[in-house]
Write a structure and sequence with these properties.
alpha/beta; Rossmann fold; Hypothetical Protein Yjia, Chain: A,domain 2; 2 domains; nine-stranded mixed β-sheet; 11 helices; 15 strands; globular; hydrolase; CobW C-terminal domain-containing protein
């Protein structure tokens, strides 16, 4: 089984200007929700902390404000790693969760990688999830934006990395437009849970404590059904999970510069097959894939039935960062199944399916 993980969870909130990030952050910083959250704002953030909401201020390299509702707020003006380190060192007993606001144009990948590549962060803080807000009225404009060669379409990236997607401001567009947008989002990311919202009103339990990077919750992420508006059920399992072996294979790639045209070529591929995997072959297949294509594999999650292993093997990766662990035992009458989901750029379904199924033991 996967051992418990008592590190502090952190959530990345991303979305273009006007997508509703400010409304969500204001809710976190002002509502009496009973949660102790430390919010790290980016220096160009739109949230203006009203003086009447500030209970106390800590002077230091970065100002940390204690708010009346028990939350903390600070602005990062440079090194996010240093800011997280300072929060943990000075105020660890004052909060149970960190929320990081990105700039509107940010690609979440470098921030995600910080949680695995930087020991000062990894030792105390675990990544809980990436939440992306999408402005239903203007999203098509952002997604359609043609970028020059070597420049990423940030709106597509933000959707691709998400564990939770909130399609906000649906009151400003008609139902066919919303459905068309949701279908387009699903084409990019089938793994994320999606919710429609008005005025940025979302239950905080939908965005916090989601375990988007928890190996024990991988099965729901790799289920064949893309799930919309059903995330509430996931919170019946109040897990605080695990610390795993993590591997960071740095192959000297620049993960962030891609050529996106009108159709950026970012999509999801999910593969399901029965049978038992040859672990050596599966390891070689995934290892070679990450070696050759780590730039293009934004995220992947999987569940394997490994020959000779009584437990299910679960794994996930972000670019060249890969972590995996044996999980619970297979039930005696359970169908031993293998599932993998890739989200990335220029994915060839036939090629991936052949490579994955070639790892099955021949009967």
């Amino acid at each position: 089984m996967i051992p418990p993980d008592n590190r502090i969870p952190a959530t990345i909130i991303t979305g273009f200007l006007g997508s509703g990030k400010t409304t969500l952050l204001n809710q976190i910083l002002t509502a009496h929700h009973g949660k102790r959250i430390a919010v790290i704002e980016n220096e160009f953030g739109e949230v203006d902390i009203d003086g009447s909401l500030v209970a106390a201020q800590t002077a230091g390299a970065e100002d940390i404000m204690m708010l009346n509702n028990g939350c903390l707020c600070c602005t990062v003006r440079g090194d996010l790693v240093r800011m997280i380190g300072e929060l943990v060192n000075k105020k660890k007993d004052k909060f149970d969760h960190i929320v990081i606001e990105t700039t509107g144009l940010a690609n979440p990948a470098p921030i995600i990688q910080t949680f695995y590549a930087e020991d000062v962060v990894f030792n105390d803080v675990k990544l809980d999830g990436v939440v992306t807000l999408v402005d239903a009225k203007h999203a098509k404009l952002h997604l359609d934006e043609v970028k020059p060669k070597g420049i990423v379409n940030e709106a597509v990236q933000q959707i691709a990395y998400a564990d939770r997607i909130i399609v906000n401001k649906i009151d400003l567009v008609n139902e066919p437009e919303v459905s068309s947008l949701v279908e387009r989002i699903r084409g990019i990311n089938r793994m994320a849970s999606l919710k429609r919202a008005e005025y940025g009103k979302v239950d905080l339990d939908y965005v916090l404590g989601i375990g988007g990077f928890d190996l024990e919750r991988i099965e729901s992420a790799v289920s064949e059904e893309s799930h919309e508006d059903h995330a509430e059920h996931e919170h019946e399992h109040d897990h605080d999970h695990h610390h795993h072996d993590h591997h960071h294979h740095d192959h000297g790639h620049d993960h962030h510069g891609h050529d996106h045209t009108h159709d950026p070529g970012v999509s999801s591929v999910s593969i399901v097959c029965e049978g038992e995997m040859d672990l050596e072959k599966a390891d070689m297949f995934l290892g070679n894939l990450l070696l050759e294509r780590s730039d293009d594999i934004y995220r992947m999650k999987g569940l394997l039935s490994v020959s000779g292993m009584p437990q299910r093997f679960v794994f996930q990766g972000v670019h060249d960062i890969f972590q995996g662990s044996p999980e619970r035992m297979w039930e005696p009458n359970e169908v031993r199944i293998n599932k993998i989901v890739f989200i990335g750029r220029n994915l060839n379904r036939e090629e991936l399916e052949k490579g994955f199924k070639d790892c099955l033991l021949k009967k």
